[in-house]
Amino acid sequence: LQAMKIINIKELARELKLSASTISKALSDSHEISEDTKQRVLETASRLNYVPNPYASSLRGRKSRNIGLVIPEVTDSFFSLAINGIESVAKEKGYHVLICLTHENFENEKTILKEFQGGRVDGVLISVSSETIHSDHIKDLISKGIPLIFFDRICEDVQTARITTNDFESGYLATKHLVERGCRQIAYLSISSSLAISNNRMKGYKQALKDFKIPFEEQDIVDCDNDYIDNYEVIKKLLGNKKRPDGIIACVEKFTTPIYLACRDLNLSIPRDVKVISFSNLEPATILNPSLTTITQPAFEIGKAAATILFKSFEKKSFKLELESIVLPSTLVVRDSTLKV
Amino acid sequence: LQAMKIINIKELARELKLSASTISKALSDSHEISEDTKQRVLETASRLNYVPNPYASSLRGRKSRNIGLVIPEVTDSFFSLAINGIESVAKEKGYHVLICLTHENFENEKTILKEFQGGRVDGVLISVSSETIHSDHIKDLISKGIPLIFFDRICEDVQTARITTNDFESGYLATKHLVERGCRQIAYLSISSSLAISNNRMKGYKQALKDFKIPFEEQDIVDCDNDYIDNYEVIKKLLGNKKRPDGIIACVEKFTTPIYLACRDLNLSIPRDVKVISFSNLEPATILNPSLTTITQPAFEIGKAAATILFKSFEKKSFKLELESIVLPSTLVVRDSTLKV
Q1: Which residues of A touch B56 (CB under 8 A)?
Q2: Which segment of A105-114, A171-180, A297-306 scores lowest on mean pLDDT?
Q3: Which of B75, B72, B73, B77 lies closest to B283, judged by CA?
Q4: What confidence tens digit (pLDDT) does each residue in B258-281 have?
Q5: Beta-carbon separation of B75 and A81 below 8 A
Q6: d(CA B247, nearest CA chain A) in Å
């Protein structure tokens, strides 16, 4: 395979017997250049297969035409659907989405944002990791003039746009649903004590218990993590207790499989012995055994809203990101895992 | 929010009373610069929060330190796991992965590769869309000197590295398993007649039918597409036939939910009336109703192998990509959806 030569502006200029600056102006559709010349330059550029170097033009205009997307993982339906929403907006604007995964690790997140300071992206959409305990790295990036928007997982102390769902209300709704289906001891599986989504859902859960006069005990809050095997063990221990819960709220999708497997291995029936509800965008929720009752987040719409606001801030320098706060409601979808038997 | 000034090499040079070229050489750890000076430059760079501009250095070295990843979608467990494999290698090399989605659309794929010609990425990993009917856009990119590697979904006429799984054997194995479990009329759900993965799996299926003396009829090959509702309708029609299949092989994961729902809506029991096997990396396969027999691809390993070869080609100019062809075997995981009843 022989590498074809990449034609640059200088070579185009030589070919057309024009100055490089004329070529450059013609390609950027400047009013200083006649229509005839523009036409001639475009035809030759096309014939010689000239491709503009995005780095050269970014040095001039400081535009990378990339947006950075920082998320914990892609093996989660919420994030994969949110990506589709973000992409749908970016594509329309001629932007690429640079997807960076933190794998729920704080150090990874700091490294990624540090690198974004160098002009690799024009703006950032972020859903922070479950280990993110402070926001200096985020404030630092914003102070460099790079717009940043939170979606779903936010840092509450950073003044910028945030697109979230009604976490408190959803936690409340999930708990209320379980109480109405007869549960009297409900466990809440938390992903992280530092994440606002996890805490707000938990606050809704606690408020509902209070309102429905169900006694709350500290051990009903169960800290899970990002490891599949760990979670299975923790859940199995919880359900193996003599005084085991009769209802479980999983605050993220990834707890579903370990919950179902722990029940199976302990010969506990869902929903007879334990009712289960999960925050989840899992498409196969409906074909699980039993089908899973979910709190379903508007994932695509959250991604779309976040990207839309970012582009607004690109287009209008006076746009005040810190005034933008959008809450899109989630939906309770009742299925067999919370059936009254 | 006031934007902090971004410190560049010139300003670092002024601060340190050294030439810009000395600073630049010190930062790139050149042997021409003393250890003392290097130390002094690094300390000052760190104190003033200097961040290298990746575009400036790419113009010099033609290195973007991005690799482009072109895939049909992220809402598929194979691709989300493959991304993790690719990321694990890229991270180690200090590279970012620019993930671009074609949404199974040929025009999108052409646009993405065209833009990659401009130096935005140093190399490309691609799994082509189900609509990709020729490979001119791929050959064009390679001819510009940008290394490109296929994984999973390849174009057979392009001479470059390819990391695939044993599609023919897996199709054969899936069919053999269904025959052994008593199926006598097996339908094959295809994703695209232009995709090698779909065709090779189908060839394995046809060979197994032949070997086991099961008559094959053209209508046993069912063309599905990327639309959930379309697929549900096609599958429901297939299973609503008087002469309906007693076994189904789904060549991609996304057919699973529509198959299960069509069976439920037609009051057909899996596995009693219809046995189902799917190419799938779905984590919840084990908790479906019934649990799903799968051909599981080594998704993480495929991504990792593809990225490893790409970096080899970066490091050694004489590396011959077209000689690299790796086949990693998939695994049959037997569960209840193919139970003999």
Answers
A1: 59
A2: A105-114
A3: B77
A4: 999 999 999 999 999 999 999 999
A5: yes
A6: 18
Residues B171, B82, A290, CA angle at the centre, nearest 5°? 70
Of A162, A106, A110, A99, the residue nearest A138 (C-alpha): A110
Of A101, A142, A289, the CB nearest to B288: A289
pLDDT at B83 over 90: yes
Q: Given a cut of 90, is residue A20 above it in pLDDT?
A: no
Q: What single letter denotes the amino acid at residue A40?
A: R
Q: Please count the residues of chain B.
A: 341
Which residues, at least 6 apart from A202, have a Cβ–Cβ distance to it below 8 Å?
A171, A188, A190, A221, A251
For the stretch A159-209, pLDDT in tens is 999 999 999 999 999 999 999 999 999 999 999 888 999 999 999 999 999
**Is B108 in contact with B124 (CB distance < 8 Å)?**
no
Whether the ipTM is more than 0.85: the answer is no
Q: What tokens were used for A97? A: 């989405």
The CB density around residue A179, as the number of other CB atoms within 10 Å, is 18
Buried b (16+ CB within 10 A) or exposed e, B65-74: bbbbbbbbbb
Residues making up chain A, counted from first to last = 341
Window 125-144 of A: residues touching B by CB (8 A cutoff) are 142-144
Helix (H, G, I), strand (E, B) or coil at B170: helix
Enumerate residues 180 to 239 of chain B having a beta carbon within 8 A of any beta carbon in chain A: none
Residues 6+ apart with CB under 8 A from A334: A177, A293
Average model confidence (pLDDT) across chain A: 91
Cα A322 to Cα A324: distance, rounded to the nearest angstrom: 6
For helices A228-240 and A256-265, the axis angle rounded to 10 degrees is 50
Contacts of B120 in chain A (CB under 8 A): 54-55, 96
Spatial separation of the C-alpha atoms in residues A93 and A218, rounded to whole Å: 49
pLDDT digits (tens, 9 = 90+) for B145-186: 999 999 999 999 999 999 999 999 999 999 999 999 999 999
Q: What is the rounded CA–CA span in Å between residue A44 and residue A49?
A: 8
Phi, psi angles (nearest 5°) of residue B311 = -70, -35
Give the global pTM. Answer: 0.82
Banded pLDDT at A55 (limits 50, 70, 90): very low
**Which of B304, B296, B309, B326 has its CA nearest to residue B84?**
B304
CB B99 within 8 A of CB A97: yes
Of B1, B81, B99, the CB nearest to A142: B1
pLDDT of residue A52: 64
Any chain A CB within 8 A of the CB of B290?
yes
Nearest Cβ partner of B54 from A75, A100, A118?
A: A118
Rounded to a whole number, what is the distance in Å from the CA of B193 to chain A's nearest CA? 26
Interface contact B98-A101, CB threshold 8 A: no
CA distance A245 to A239: 7
Instruction: Determine the residue of chain A that is closest to B108 in CA distance.
Output: A91
- Within 8 A of A84 by CB-CB distance, chain B residues are 73-75, 101
